[in-house]
Amino acid sequence: MTNLTQLPQTDPLPIFRQRDSIYATDLLGAAVAQFDFFTWLARNPTDVAGVCRAFDFHQRPVDVMLTLFCAMGLIEKRAGIFCVTEMTREHLVSGSQWNLGPYFASLKERPVCRDFVTILRTDKPANWGSYQDEKEWARAMEGVEFAEGFTAAMDCRGVFLGQSLARKVDLSKYSRLLDIGGGSGIYACAIASHYSHLKAAVLERSPVDGIASRKIVERGLTERVGVLNGDFFADPLPAGFDAHLFSNVLHDWDEAAVKRLLSKSHAAMEPGGILIIHDMHLNSDKTGPLPVASYSALLMAVTEGRCYSVSEMELWLKESGFEGMTFEPTAADRSVITARRMG
Question: Which of 333, 338, 330, 337 is nearest to 162 (CA)?
Fold first, then answer.
């Protein structure tokens, strides 16, 4: 049985960063090799909307791309206007004797690199892992085989991340936690293992609800962690909980969906309750950190979402009726945001 109160002796941060940043180089490759983007930007400093107009791109993927390039030190943002840095002007702009643009030409036919061209133009996520015989992530999760594999991947990282989350959030005054879209239930189980008075429920659709039930049995927590079947978009959130958790969930969905989920949480939560958002968050001006911006490229490619900034979350929480937002780093470039549902 997994001990969900024992941390490893070593920090897996370098391993997490290798996996989480795997798509970032392909997004850079697409910008350089397919569009000669930096040569254009050197001549046309502009904002997100200007890039969208010039290339017929969509806002969400352009937002992710520009955030990544800021975090890489390739462009700078001045009062909302993006321009190239001196390093980029020397090494990624056509006409410079040190231009490395042709060095990226061999990347342009990589599957993920090609996918980014389509995503920028359509705002539609690619098939999972760029596999031609696989669906995009949200639809792929409806199949048992894919759901088993994907949930196992998220579960193994949660054994580490869940404990770090549980140690950062004080739930001593709360009694019932709803883990919304909680996958295997690893985060609910980790929190329950740290707070013996607390009971939790994992809200999931089929077939993931069955996977969660099995994992909770394996972890010996069936008396304190249950599973509820439901669709958090189609159905009202269950009532009777004074703590809600979105762990690595909001980043899968677009801005409109995130706002909708926050509003549904506020409507269903007990007065005086706490909302916990565990994720990777960009800084307020969306210029980094680089590991988060790199992970956002992966999310942009395979989901409808991206990584959101602290300032975006603060605004949307206020609009949904929550108060008193706090932000704190946890582990592996993740962080936790909390807010209160007042009476």
Answer: 330
Q: Which phi and psi (to 5°) does residue 131 adopt? A: -75, 130
SS3 call for 199: strand
Q: What residue segments make up the domains of the chain, in order of their start? A: 13-139, 158-286+299-341
The CA distance from 24 to 160, in Å, is 24
CATH of domain 13-139: 1.10.10.10
Using the predicted structure, report yes or no on whether residue 89 has a pLDDT greater than 70. yes
- CA separation for the pair 101, 32 (Å, rounded): 6
Q: Distance (Å, rounded) from C-alpha 76 to C-alpha 9? A: 39
Say how far apart CA 154 and CA 332 lie, in whole Å: 14
Residues pairing with 340 in the sheet: 274, 323
DSSP-derived secondary structure letter, 254: -
Encoded amino acid at 327, one letter: F
Pairing between β-strand 243-247 and β-strand 176-180 as defined by DSSP bridges:
parallel
250 close to 261: Cβ distance less than 8 angstroms = yes
Classify residue 46 by its DSSP letter.
B
Partners of 244 in beta bridges:
178, 275
Report the C-alpha dihedral over residues 47, 49, 51, 52, rounded to 10 degrees: 170
3-state DSSP of 67-108: HHHHHCCCEEEECCEEEECHHHHHHCCCCCCCCCHHHHHHHC
- Judge whether 291 and 17 are in contact, CB under 8 Å: yes
pLDDT in tens, 113-163: 999 999 999 999 987 654 455 456 567 777 888 888 889 989 999 999 999
Domain 158-286+299-341, second-level architecture: 3-Layer(aba) Sandwich (3.40)
- Entry pTM: 0.95
76 CB-near residues (< 8 Å, 6+ apart): 70, 82, 83, 84, 85
Q: What is the b/e burial string over 264-283, where b = at least 16 CB atoms within 10 angstroms of the residue's CB?
A: bbbebbbeebbbbbbbbbbe
